[in-house]
Amino acid sequence: MSINGELTRTDDNAITGWIASLTFDVSITLTTNPHKEKDTHPDYEVTATTPNGRVIRIGSAWNATSQKGNEYLSLSLGLDPGGQQIRVNALTNGDAGVYRLVALTGR
Prior knowledge:
The chain is mainly beta. Helices cover 0% and strands 53% of the residues.
């Protein structure tokens, strides 16, 4: 599945942006997970707003570090019309606080 997107850290410690494919195009917000109790729990809740203005949780995100020491975000999202979770990584693109989305192969 071809996926594109961009995220930007905001001054209030949230992360906002968008993710799109040929079947969806959504604005998303990542906010600190208030229910995190263990290291394995998600660091962020990922939400979107419905056409009627309701905020719904569509996934989770974790802070991660590559084997080369680069920090990134790992996202799991429920946006696929077929019901499967979409897995993407958000990599910094050189600008402080700006990430580009890269879909994981095999979802």
